[in-house]
Amino acid sequence: MPIESVNDFVVRFANVNGSGSASANELFARSVLRMGVPVSPRNIFPSNIQGLPTWYEVRVTEADHLGARGGVDLMVAMNPQTWDKDVASIEPGGYLFYDSTKPMPPSRFRADITVIGMPLTEICNREYSDPRQRQLFKNIIYVGALSALLNMDVNEIEKLIGEQFKSKEKLIAPNIHALHLGRDFALQNLKCPIGLQVRRADKVGDRIFIEGNSASALGAVYGGATVCAWYPITPSSSLAEAFSRHCARLRVDPETKENRFAIVQAEDEIAAVGMVIGAGWNGARAFTATSGPGISLMQEFLGLAYFAEIPSVIIDVQRGGPSTGMPTRTQQSDLLLCAYASHGDTKHVMLFPEDPAEAFDFTALSFDLAERLQTPIFVMLDLDIGMNHRLSRPLAWDDARRYDRGKVMTAAELEAGKDFGRYLDVDNDGIPFRTYPGTHPTRGSFFTRGTSRDRYARYTEEGGPYVDNMQRLLKKFETAKGLVPRPVRRNADKPGRFGIIYYGSTSPAMDEAHDMLIAQGIALDLLRVRGFPFHHDVAEFAGAHDAVFVVEQNRDAQLRTLLVNELNLDPAKILPVLQFDGTPITARFIARAIGDHLDSRKVVPLHKVVS
Amino acid sequence: MTYIVKPRFHHPALPKNALGYTHRDYEGSVSTLCAGCGHDSISAAIIQACFELNIEPHRVAKLSGIGCSSKTPTYFLGQSHGFNSVHGRMPSVMTGANLANRELIYLGVSGDGDTASIGLGQFAHLIRRGVNMTYIVENNGVYGLTKGQFSATADRGSKSKRGAINADSSIDLVAMALQLGATFVGRSFSGDKKQLVPLIMAAIEHKGAAFLDVISPCVAFNNHPGSTKSFDHVREHNEAVNRLDFISGRSPIAVDYEPGAVEIVEQHDGSKIALRKLDGDYDVHDRRGATNFLLERAAAGEIVTGLLYVEPDGEELHDNLKTVKKPLNTLGERELCPGSGALDKFNASLR
Q1: Which of B1, B58, B333 sits opposite A441 (nearest CB)?
Q2: What's A488-610's CATH class?
Q3: Given pLDDT bands bounded at 50, 70 and 90, which one contains residue B252?
Q4: Which among A162, A314, A498, B49 would be 20 to 30 A from B313, CA to CA?
Q5: Chain B positions in Cβ-Cβ contact with residue A220 (cut-off 8 Å)
């Protein structure tokens, strides 16, 4: 039976990298949004510029399930290279849309799906003579055909084309022409609509459609970052580039046209973090954006920033590791690398945003935390959040908010004779005062070094002062627990024996899995961890349950390791649920893994207990 | 060594500079380097240069990497903030510091191991970016702190104290700095205070990346016959192209050199360098000529010293980045945060 579904299905576009399909596919996704129906698109792309297979997946979801679902209901198969796999991935009863210009033997199709052929190449060749136009307009033509097949409002697509080419007006008419070429052909020659349909709804609200990297970069602008040093690496390059764009728009002095920011593309990640540390030492808010391999290179400097207590922000857009790993696939596999970065005893602060809105909030916050705690702060993004458009609550800023510049002793305080010891714990929170270079002619200068020193920053190799300093750093880490974003807890209707801990980009899939589990009569308490070191609520949550599932996207259960290690939890009670194949985690996977586990424990589902 | 403290007492008749500071105000703590180390002479030259330039010590930021030379910032300018970073990475920390506050005077001290080996990449990129700073390499051709291994600036064929012969080609940092676009390049010798002090003064006043290679014999591991970085060898093979005098923009010009042999170079801030030419044909404004001259003399076994190249109106990193005149570290919410209105507009563009 062909799948019948309104506002709840997955369309996947199989294209060739560099063929201009990306903007047409995005146009399709935005058109659904404009009809008031939430979508969640994902790029699945190779580490390549031109010629290799690339996919764009659009989950149409009135129920607001923004995580990846898995499976494909409608395949738009535009890449002969991947044909067999693409056809095989369609759900039974699903649909295949393809370019039928060149006949295909029946053996290349499936009996249990609906096949919709349209001679796209033939139409293009008839209409256009320029090869480039044939290629580009083919994409718009299939969007036009889909609008008919899925019963979409063509006016919304036309409006979007108008907005897209606002500054290149002469491109509007030819694009709209191509759109109708496809739409009219489908209406006249194909059965429209198919079982999958988009129906106007009102479920998008005031939400925005944005990539996490862009939101995070804007968070750096709002958070007062003035220095950005970076080295190109997928999937973080678009973050530094977005910072450049935002700054060009928002940070140029209107009168002098001079920049209130400095962006340096460094020679490598080591130099990038070195510049961040130099700028942080000298009182500017500075950050770098990188991915796992970059963090590996930065290790020595990160230890210096920890030990010499220099504010710095490192945004890690995580990808598949180890080594070069899967540069264009997503994972949450840098937690241990960042938490304990560098040789010797170190611990670092990490933040785990779940979506673009939190990427904005947490990036802005990271600069306050870095200066308050005088230490590196890691913002743990990943490719799934960073490089995909996500429907997200609008970004918000309170104009009354003031930057927390931390404990900086001023020239006036020094002049008044206030005692300055760079590593003196004056407030019993482990955080000492610092001075900016050049503050006072005779007071407050000190030597910053990675070697051991006493409370007044004087070099020493004696055991006592060394231990004193290392203990103070631990105390400071304790202080950080109260400053990082608190975990978000959602309790089941009734108290249960089991809980789930999750974080970051797993969020939307977890929400959906939670609904699926409830439908199966399994009710669990949820805790979304948003920062490291763990807030006391996390230990409390773990202690309140017989067992806690920790859902994450890496092989080695890295958050679980941190939970067991830092909170001294019983490993037998902390159960890993792990997906790490590079694709975003799905609700189906989580619900199945947890359901199976509970079955094996022979837990009687709640509804059976109740009935 | 925390127990070594210099006495606060000093003679009331010590000469003072225009700011009323004495030499002592530019000193740091007692050096812990070997007695007779060339590096201590360079520290003394830095102290003298800052004293004569009437620099407020706290307006200098001194940065270094790791090694004997990188320890020296502790021994001068005790009222300046110092940063002893990680091995070979002073240039990146320096670049970041300079971006944060363009108003301070930046002094980077490094060694031949720190700059020519582990830090060669960062050195190159700092120079090509034109970071406004003075970069001094205290070059002894040897790893001192780890007890005498060859460094990358050791000449091919030179002999270590233990008798090993260096078979690798040496890196000439001066030639590299010229090639990489440094706008001020000089070489000197730690034992030649008369040449070194004005060179450091001119480098500090220079706008842009100023590079100084200072040969500084290691008395412990590289001052024996067979070493090309020993006191004797350098003295015998030193080919100075010029002697210079530095005249700050704030003081009247008084040059006691014979006319004809003297060239006055005026820098962007009005300060002047008076060059007494020792080699009649040598032109300090000819980057290619300087490179050729270096190679020629090196082939003859000579070490060229003096001011080798200067571009008085060079551009620096902040010019290229078009940053505001006010130091970035002084900007607050008003200048940096676009506010909720701009954010609402941005949100609206994403629907």
Answers
A1: B58
A2: alpha beta
A3: very low
A4: B49
A5: none
